[in-house]
Design a protein that fits this description.
heterodimer; A: mainly alpha; B: mainly alpha; two-stranded antiparallel ribbon
Chain lengths: ~120, ~850
């Protein structure tokens, strides 16, 4: 993270990453199925499913790390004077990152069980 | 009268003089947020009655099987107009109006930050709404459903003007929504009371901030869809017709990209009312303020990822459906968090069951039921079974009426004393509630069953003996009971203006700042602008009422007959500048009238007239922009006024810059939606074809882009100088930038004129035509803005001391440059590379 954990951009950055992942997922699936559709009898064991699950883990992991950084920031801010706003921003941001991580991972779950292009 | 009282009285008279509306017909020139907000609410309620009347006609027709009170084509018009009126002309505008009325009062300021934009928005809404309704009177109302699915709404299957009324009228109304969105975002972020940091912001403001941003990102896809469909209907361009490379599903994507977030655009402010009222009547601060902020932000984003759940039956791969199914279920989590926070607040407090609280309880019951059927519908297999049945109609009404109308009525009752200075009748109000609540559940609870038994929506009659007869009859009876409930509420509200008891100060014991204002409300809200040290100012510092009235806080007196408010830091709320606002103006009304004539001329296909009124509307807008920034009429100054905080027109970070950036976010969403449409047609349209050779020549386009890049570079140099307090060769610099931009525009226009585009034959060419027009519009506007700046430099309105306006225009140049090169890449280079590959 380039920004300080107290920057208000963190209040929504996690969900922007989630949204980008969602668009890439939906758009990428269409493109993947057009360019190199896997055989329909492969069920969930296709290259597309593999990419979906791997990227979900990657995005989810990154967002979890961001949440951890914000929580760390909140702990540091608590020791400072007049830190209520900083604590508010960093804690809320940590929760937003956690929610985003959960949502990003949840989007990858169907990739474990469903065939991609049918 | 003591000298001090006399001074105080004179000070208030000066404030009244500066802030009041013009008398008589001059009231049409009012830009004040209280006036405009109340107009939005009153007009929205009128449209609600029209929509309700249409609903009663529908229920009358369906009460018994095989009735022929209303024939099928009129029935189609009725349900289309019912949905259209309720969604576009009632729900969103009335909530915007409420937000416009309340936000400045809650954040401790005197007006919204772009008052003329508020007034323009109102007139666009009024005229657009009347244009749409006129189609009903003329018996040519749209009849393809409120979602206007193609090909049903296309010229082939809807040859009359009904669909045109919808497309043009709704686009006109959406100008209003977008202007409100921009206005509210900037007002909340930049004009809060001194010290009102993000963590001290009233929870209602968080909801409205999210709603306003959702409008900014949610409405452009529908505006794009409407423009494309109207181009297809009126000029024969190909976008949604399969022959020629279009795809009707593109309309569904664009519509629901707007349509699903819209449900949350409606729900969020209503939930804001709930989060505001529950703590007041529970006599306890809202439990989990931070959790609710988290929920609001999460809902704002996740609700954009659900649109395909309206399209589960169109043949999308199962895995893709699963993504949207998961997202649809995820959105229940933030909703659940809010419901538990509300319950916890009620649990911890000592609840006072006054009239608004009754409607809140009705909301909790009805909305939770609607939410549960929503989770059921998020499951694709169940969705397939009940798609297009009355189950969906019942769910939608539970969510929208439960999630919006119940809180809205609670809010209207709650803030009524604010407007009238009187209290509503408790007994009549309770009758109204129980009739409405009972009637509503009788109508729509049973409708779930009708749907599960297989009754499709949008059929004008049905055979007897299918098991739907008694359910429909009881639903219709419930509908009429609900209508009686509405009538009782209206009678209660009307009567209270004469018969209601005088309201005492802060009659509900609220914690937010709007109750520190005298009742009935005045035009300038606060006699002096208070500093804020707590999230509950009226609970923790009740003495604010007296100290504000006594002028003990900021901007207590008028300077140079200006309408002044504070501009503050978006995060900390610390005061940074004095924002001077425009006063009463006829320009919003005149501009809206010009746009209305433009809309009507397009409807009647008088295209020359539409060109004339496009020019008139543009001229009026430029005239509007002329009296802005440091223009002496916009920012008159006294010699003896304090220099700190500075006037916003003397800074480089005024609200205009924020307004420009937020507007460009909406513009960018429009562009991205067009990009989506392009790639969607390319990858999914069954008969999409790329021509062997691009109809646009690459070399002139690159040269044109280089000229644009030079223009933007030059403009940046000038602005950098201004930011550093230098204005060397500012005037000639502006002329040079405008000349470079004009050269770029001319080359681009030449390309459009000379290219062998066939937009009526190929979707590929139709999209290219639209993108070229889009680029021309932006480049042309940037050049005009810069030419105006060159003149203003000569007149001394833009100088090293007055750097405001070029700083506002700079992002527009950046945006124009960005979309130009991106378009070149996506619309020209990529297809060429693809063809070669």
């Amino acid at each position: 993270m380039k920004f300080s954990p107290f920057h208000p951009i963190h209040l929504f950055l996690g969900l922007i990453i989630w949204a980008a992942w969602f668009v890439a997922l939906y758009g990428g699936l269409s493109v993947g199925c057009t360019i190199a559709p896997p055989a329909s009898d492969e069920q969930a064991g296709t290259w597309i499913n593999g990419v979906i699950v791997a990227v979900a883990l990657l995005v989810g992991g990154y967002l979890l790390w961001c949440a951890y950084r914000c929580l760390q920031g909140a702990s540091e801010a608590k020791l400072q004077k007049d830190s209520r706003l900083k604590v508010f921003i960093s804690r809320t941001a940590a929760a937003v990152y956690l929610v985003s991580a959960f949502a990003s991972l949840a989007l990858g779950v169907p990739g474990l069980v469903l065939s991609p292009c049918v | 009268m003591s000298e001090r009282t006399q001074q105080h009285h004179e000070r208030e008279l000066r404030l009244e003089h500066v802030w009041s509306n013009l008398p008589g017909w001059g009231a049409l020139a009012a830009v004040n947020h209280t006036t405009v907000g109340l107009r939005f609410i009153a007009t929205g309620l009128m449209f609600f009655l029209v929509g309700g009347l249409l609903a009663m006609l529908i229920r009358t027709q369906l009460a018994l099987p095989e009735q022929d009170i209303i024939e099928s084509s009129l029935y189609n018009q009725l349900f289309t107009m019912h949905g259209t009126v309720m969604m576009f002309l009632f729900a969103i505008p009335v909530l915007e109006g409420l937000a416009m009325y309340l936000i400045p009062k809650m954040i401790g300021t005197r007006d919204l930050v772009f008052p003329r934009l508020s007034a323009l928005g109102y007139f666009c809404y009024l005229f657009g709404g009347l244009i749409i309704l006129s189609s009903l009177v003329l018996e040519v109302a749209p009849d393809a459903g409120w979602f206007m699915y193609t090909p049903l709404s296309s010229a082939t299957y809807s040859p009359g003007p009904g669909s045109d009324f919808w497309l043009l009228g709704i686009t006109f109304v959406e100008i209003s929504a977008l202007s409100a969105g921009v206005e509210l975002v900037v007002a909340i972020l930049r004009t809060r009371a001194n010290g009102m940091s993000l963590n001290r912001m009233p929870i209602f403001c968080w909801y409205i901030l999210a709603m306003a941003l959702m409008i900014v990102f949610g409405f452009p896809p529908l505006i794009l869809g409407s423009v494309l469909l109207e181009l297809e209907r009126a000029a024969g361009f190909v976008f949604f017709a399969t022959a020629g490379g279009g795809d009707p599903l593109l309309w569904q994507h664009l519509f629901w990209l707007f349509g699903h977030p819209e449900v949350y655009i409606i729900f969020l402010p209503a939930a804001g009312i709930v989060s505001t009222l529950i703590p007041v009547f529970a006599r306890h601060p809202l439990v989990g303020y931070r959790w609710i902020v988290l929920s609001i932000i999460t809902m704002g984003f996740v609700s954009f990822g659900l649109w395909v759940h309206h399209m589960f039956t169109v043949g999308i791969p199962h895995l893709a459906q699963a993504f949207f199914s998961v997202a649809s279920m995820l959105v229940a989590i933030p909703t659940g968090i809010q419901i538990f926070a509300w319950l916890a607040t009620l649990w911890h407090g000592k609840v006072v069951f006054r009239l608004p609280m009754l409607w809140i309880l009705g909301f909790l019951v009805v909305f939770v039921c609607g939410g549960l059927t929503g989770v059921m519908l998020a499951l694709a297999p169940f969705n397939w079974q009940v798609h297009d049945t009355h189950f969906v109609v019942a769910h939608m009404h539970y969510v929208l009426v439960g999630g919006m109308l119940f809180p809205l009525v609670a809010g209207l009752y709650y803030w009524l004393p604010h407007v009238s200075g009187r209290m509503p009748s408790d007994s009549l109000g309770r009758w109204g509630f129980w009739l409405f609540f009972g009637g509503f559940n009788l109508t729509f609870l049973l409708m779930h069953l009708t749907g599960l038994l297989g009754m499709p929506r949008r059929i004008y009659t049905y055979e007897a003996g299918l098991g739907w007869d008694w359910l429909n009859l009881v639903s219709s009876i419930g509908g009429f009971i609900m209508a009686i409930g509405v009538a009782v509420v209206i009678v209660d509200i009307v009567l209270h203006f004469r018969l209601g008891q005088r309201a005492g100060h802060n009659p509900w014991g609220a914690d937010t700042l709007e109750w520190a204002i005298p009742m009935p409300v005045n035009t300038y809200n606060f006699s002096s602008l208070p500093g804020i040290t707590t999230r509950h100012p009226m609970w923790d510092t009740p003495q604010l009422v007296e100290s504000i009235a006594a002028g003990e806080h900021g901007l207590a007196d008028v300077q140079a007959l200006r309408r002044d408010i504070y501009g503050s830091d978006a995060t900390t709320g610390k005061v940074k500048e004095v924002v001077h606002l425009p006063t009463n103006s006829w320009l919003p009304l005149m501009t809206a009238l010009a746009l209305a004539v433009l809309c009507i001329s397009l409807l009647v296909k008088a295209y020359m007239l539409s060109v004339v009124f496009t020019v008139v509307a543009l001229a009026l807008s430029l005239r509007w922009s002329w009296e802005n920034g440091a223009h002496p009429r916009a920012a008159p100054t006294d010699d003896n006024e304090p220099g700190a905080p500075p006037l916003h027109s003397r800074t480089c970070n005024g609200p205009g810059l924020w307004g420009m950036v937020v507007s460009l976010m909406a513009d960018g969403t429009f562009f991205v939606s067009l990009l989506f449409g392009w790639f969607y047609l390319w990858t999914a349209a069954p008969e999409w074809t790329l021509p062997d050779q691009s109809p646009i020549q690459l070399v002139p386009m690159i040269f044109s882009g280089l000229l644009l890049t030079a223009a933007v570079g030059g403009f940046c140099v000038l602005v950098r100088g201004l930011r550093r307090g230098r204005a060397t060769r500012l005037g000639p610099g502006m002329w040079l930038v405008a000349a470079l931009g004009a050269g770029h525009w001319a080359l681009l226009a030449g390309q459009l004129m000379s290219a062998p585009l066939a937009p009526t034959e190929r979707a590929h060419d139709a999209v290219l035509t639209v993108i070229l027009l889009y680029l021309l519009l932006h480049s042309g506007l940037a050049v005009i803005f810069t030419l105006l700046q060159a003149v203003r430099v000569r007149l001394g309105y833009t100088t090293a001391r007055l750097p405001y306006e070029p700083v506002v225009i700079q992002p527009f140049w950046f945006y124009t440059l960005g979309v130009y090169w991106l378009s070149l890449l996506a619309f020209l280079l990529l297809p060429t590379a693809w063809s070669v590959g």
